[in-house]
């Protein structure tokens, strides 16, 4: 358990050193501190904001940055701290004593999460394995913070003029993505492509120097619920990159006005936020629009989209492009050749289903749980479907005032899911209610549950 006094002193020591050391920049501060001291008022016109010196730590700041409910109470008995009654500012009276006190109470993991503290430790006589360089590499840059993203969007895009375009785009900061790669059950092929991507991002300069620029455009292919969206988001979390998501069906919707212009600005958002991941969902909408004889304006928008894909580069623009489709059969050659890698997301086999169930149930109490038996019964179901099954089992147990579920609960939930799944094929006839057809052979069907796929 974290020590409140250590948490608050770390903040005070970090603020003091950042104020004094002009060799440090905002990327050296932990994200939890940056969002407290962020300001949009800056002399640097090329930046939407920064963390300006000096840093003054008020009790409110300390509470937000550390999560300690009563920061001053946590450190008031220490000889090297003081509090200004009027402003509520907490500061150090003897920074050297504070540093010595702090380094006696921190470990390498804490140093790796705070480059400023790691630099202080490097200069001390204390024996730590973690270094400033290591901490800097692991620390998420300020350009991936929510405050930076919002300030940049406000600066470059007009809320009224660009309203349509901004409605198309969802931008997530890495800190807002809860799913990680460790929470996913991936195939060997998927894991291999992700590893290659991470290496390509790490060695962008090398790739540019050898003239290999056509890299970093992926197409994720597979049925709904198999992990395409979740894998892309988890990759953004892992790499500490902003995640720019656009659903292509929205771009090609008739109600949008200047569609081609909106497409161009969507790519401009990604370039402004670079390095980032640009995720284009429902890419098969391209093919549908290209084959249509109607809506010339939308055709122009799709041509603009394809040209924008050609023009964007991981090496040059620092934008990793990932597109996803549930219907690869609807893509023509012009769409396929835009991508240098195709990653297949099939429905999980029996072994993967069992692994997915183990991941989903890691924090659940289940009597006599046998994921292999459940996997045998759930052929054709996706990771998203399995999550829904477990959710149903938990809710049914809660209705019986039980906080633990059983294998029987899960199997009952599987039966309920199969029955409910058949309803998706109901043929709704206007004015005559619904007609239920015979049960189809596919036990799982294809569902779109917002990408909560092979995951916890």
Description:
By secondary structure, the protein is an alpha/beta fold. It folds into three domains: 4-139, no CATH class; 144-344, P-loop containing nucleotide triphosphate hydrolases (Rossmann fold, 3-Layer(aba) Sandwich), CATH 3.40.50.300; 350-435, Helicase, Ruva Protein, domain 3 (Orthogonal Bundle). It is 48% helix and 11% strand. The protein has 23 helices and 15 strands. The chain has helices at residues 4-20, 31-37, 59-66, 71-75, 95-103, 108-112, 115-122, 132-138, 146-156, 163-168, 188-202, 204-209, 228-239, 248-251, 259-273, 285-291, 296-311, 314-317, 333-336, 350-360, 371-377, 383-399, 407-422; strands at residues 38-39, 50-51, 57-58, 81-83, 89-92, 169-172, 217-221, 243-247, 276-281, 319-325, 341-344, 366-367, 405-406, 427-428, 434-435. It has a six-stranded mixed beta sheet with strand order 6-8-9-10-7-11, sandwiched between helices. Helix 2 (31-37) packs antiparallel against helix 3 and helix 20 (350-360) crosses helix 22 (383-399). It is globular and about 70 Å long. The model is unreliable at 428-453 (pLDDT under 50).
Topology:
Elements: H1 4-20, H2 31-37, E1 38-39, E2 50-51, E3 57-58, H3 59-66, H4 71-75, E4 81-83, E5 89-92, H5 95-103, H6 108-112, H7 115-122, H8 132-138, H9 146-156, H10 163-168, E6 169-172, H11 188-202, H12 204-209, E7 217-221, H13 228-239, E8 243-247, H14 248-251, H15 259-273, E9 276-281, H16 285-291, H17 296-311, H18 314-317, E10 319-325, H19 333-336, E11 341-344, H20 350-360, E12 366-367, H21 371-377, H22 383-399, E13 405-406, H23 407-422, E14 427-428, E15 434-435
Helix pairs in contact: 1-5, 2-3, 7-8, 15-17, 20-21, 20-22, 22-23
């Amino acid at each position: 358990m974290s020590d409140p006094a250590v948490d608050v002193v770390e903040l005070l020591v970090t603020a003091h050193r950042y104020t004094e050391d002009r060799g440090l920049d905002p990327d050296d501060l932990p994200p939890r501190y940056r969002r407290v001291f962020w300001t949009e008022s800056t002399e640097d016109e090329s930046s939407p904001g920064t963390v300006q010196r000096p840093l003054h730590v008020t009790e409110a700041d300390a509470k937000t940055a550390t999560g300690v409910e009563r920061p001053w109470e946590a450190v008031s008995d220490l000889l090297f701290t003081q509090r200004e009654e009027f402003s509520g500012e907490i500061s150090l009276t003897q920074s050297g004593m504070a540093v010595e006190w702090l380094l006696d109470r921190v470990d390498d993991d804490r140093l790796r999460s705070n480059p400023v503290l790691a630099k202080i430790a490097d200069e001390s006589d204390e024996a730590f394995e973690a270094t400033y360089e290591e901490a800097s590499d692991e620390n998420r840059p300020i350009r991936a913070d929510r405050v930076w993203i919002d300030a940049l969007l406000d600066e470059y895009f007009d809320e009224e003029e660009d309203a349509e375009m901004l409605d198309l785009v969802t931008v997530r900061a890495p800190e807002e993505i809860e799913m990680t790669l460790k929470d996913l059950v991936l195939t060997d092929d998927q894991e291999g492509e992700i590893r290659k991507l991470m290496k390509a991002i790490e060695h962008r300069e090398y790739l540019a120097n050898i003239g290999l620029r056509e890299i970093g455009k992926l197409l994720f292919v597979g049925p709904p619920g198999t992990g395409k969206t979740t894998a892309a988001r988890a990759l953004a979390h892992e790499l500490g990159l902003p995640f720019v998501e656009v659903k292509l069906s929205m771009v090609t919707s008739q109600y949008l006005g200047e569609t081609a212009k909106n497409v161009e600005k969507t790519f401009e958002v990604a370039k402004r936020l670079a390095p980032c991941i640009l995720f284009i969902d429902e890419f098969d909408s391209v093919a549908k629009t290209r084959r249509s004889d109607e809506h010339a304006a939308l055709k122009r928008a799709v041509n603009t989209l394809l040209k924008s894909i050609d023009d964007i580069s991981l090496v040059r623009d620092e934008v990793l492009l990932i597109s996803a489709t549930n219907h690869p059969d609807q893509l023509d050659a012009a769409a396929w050749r835009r991508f240098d890698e195709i990653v297949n997301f099939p429905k999980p086999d029996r072994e993967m289903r069992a692994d997915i169930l183990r991941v989903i149930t890691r924090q659940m109490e289940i009597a006599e749980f046998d994921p292999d038996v459940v996997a045998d019964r759930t052929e054709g179901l996706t990771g998203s479907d399995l999550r829904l099954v477990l959710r149903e089992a938990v809710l049914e147990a809660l209705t019986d005032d039980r906080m633990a579920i059983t294998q029987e609960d899960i199997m009952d939930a599987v039966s309920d899911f199969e029955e409910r799944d058949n309803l998706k094929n109901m043929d709704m006839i206007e004015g005559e209610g619904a007609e239920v057809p015979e049960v189809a052979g596919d036990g799982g069907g294809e569902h779109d549950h917002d990408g909560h796929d092979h995951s916890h």
